[in-house]
Design a protein that fits this description.
Structural class: alpha+beta
Order of helices and strands: HHEEEEEEHEEHE
Radius of gyration: 15 Å
Strand content: 25-35%
Largest sheet: 9 strands, antiparallel
Number of helices: 4
Helix content: 10-25%
Amino acid sequence: MLLNQDFFDQAADKVAFHLIGCRLHWHEGKQSQSRLITETEAYIGPEDLASHAARGRTERNDALFGPSGRFYVYLIYGRHWMLNVVTGPIGFPAAVLIRSLDGLKGPARVTKALNITGDLNGQIASEKTGVWFTETPQPVRRPIIRSARIGVEYSGPVWSQKPYRFVLSSK
């Protein structure tokens, strides 16, 4: 079943948890491909010092402010695209970073394998735009591990330790 805007119109940590075990689909030429989502991270609002929204709304982070179900794609280190899906109500900046897919560990490897660029920024997740999400017919029956996010030490001792990272256990 296609995950629509209603699915994404909830808190980012809930979306991040529930995306684990779902599938991310994309077009590769005339073919559709998909992989299981195995790792996500939530970024929740302007108070979250690890979020790009912590410094307010800018041209770069405008897509982060909604509507839910659209992509927030940005470039880090001048070379790696990061794929996020916006969550929650319009105007409240929250999103989920897709960190890993089955067989693709790391957010830069995900975007490289899917040929994601900034052209997807602000687009709605749908088959029409070429990248979309679905539930799996049979839920994955492995535990989901919740932990602190990776690489956000700059956000300080409180926000860097928030348990907003979700990983599908290998066992």
